[in-house]
Amino acid sequence: MVAVSLSGRSKLWVLIKRIYNPSVISSSYSNTQYHSRLIGGLIQKRNLNFQANSTMGICTSSEKFVQECRCRHAATEKLGVLLVNIGGPENLNDVQPFLCNLFADPDVIRLPKLFKFLQRPLAKLISILLAPKTKRWYAAIGGGSPLRRITDEQADALRTALEAKNLHANVYVGMRCWYPFMEEAIQQIKWDRITKLVLLPLFPQFSISTTGSSIRVLQRIFMDDAYLLRLPVSIIRFWYRRQGYIRSIADSIVTQLSKFEKPEEVLIFFSAHGVPVSYDENDGDPYKDQIEECIYLIMREHRVGPVQWLKPYTNEVLVELGRKGVKSLLAVPIRELGRVPALGCTSSFITDLADAVVEALPSAKSLSILRETAKESDCR
């Protein structure tokens, strides 16, 4: 194992991409900030509150849970696991309709109730305007998104990992904005007469616009179907804290750092999709806090403590130069650039997802039971 050693010159950056705009916001955070946020309890408090307001439970990691679940899984049960992702256009002709589906999601673009009828027309207009530029981006990576292929491969790998734990399951793939849609996958789950289901959104952190949107689709479909309404379901809302996931990311970073001439001088740059500020400020979306906590946990995995980084930070220097009236700037390119690949079907990652599925099974409850429980609570 190669240890991560960051010098005082190294900085930790988080790149946030606006969901509606291809422009980029970049900001820097020190490990001291992450540490103080965790100590202050802000992240944990918000996450716990969000779980308390949720309609379905989430299990905590426990080896005992895994053993109990294996014993309880009777041969007559038919377990299903639904992997959920956003989806992506598989060719350039798919780009515009994919974008239309994306922006038609009321959890992606939120309109006042008075203007809800404009959701689809607005989505179509935005997709038409963005399609030419977006097509160029997809053309640059081969003409389409590899997400469906990768997700199918993850589904196969997860099925194999569960079988290694003596747990046989049908693993389904459902996309929010492109084929195969969640609705199709849920219909197949019904046809297969699944008796217990685990919903596993492939988003490590929870956001209203990703996992939240997926849960609402599932609830809407289930509420209109007597069979599905009785189906016990367990939802894994987020899994960025899982040790297997954190370790897999950290190990991948170490592997890439070892390829540099001077690993100790490398600036580590984290990138994540962003969400509208209103989600965080008005709706209590825990995504931003969970992203920051996740980065802290990854860096801590290799004993990178909560230290203050040497200044000045790049973003602060650029702001100061602007204040001084600098109109032109020449940036000296870096000599080495590396990228940590997505985990994909990394063995340790898939095994951890399989553990998460096993641990989630005991909390599975039908929506009908949860609905009756909610009614009883309201009457008290």
From TrEMBL:
It is a peripheral membrane protein. Pathway: Porphyrin-containing compound metabolism; protoheme biosynthesis; protoheme from protoporphyrin-IX: step 1/1. It comes from Gossypium raimondii (Peruvian cotton). InterPro entries: Ferrochelatase, Ferrochelatase_AS, Ferrochelatase_C, Ferrochelatase_N. It catalyses: heme b + 2 H(+) = protoporphyrin IX + Fe(2+). Keywords: Chloroplast, Heme biosynthesis, Iron, Lyase, Plastid, Porphyrin biosynthesis. It is found in: Plastid, Chloroplast membrane. One of its GO terms (biological process) is heme biosynthetic process. One of its GO terms (molecular function) is ferrochelatase activity. The keyword Iron applies. Belongs to the ferrochelatase family. Catalyzes the ferrous insertion into protoporphyrin IX. PANTHER family: FERROCHELATASE, FERROCHELATASE-1, CHLOROPLASTIC_MITOCHONDRIAL. GO terms for cellular component: chloroplast membrane; mitochondrion. Its EC number is 4.98.1.1. This is Ferrochelatase.
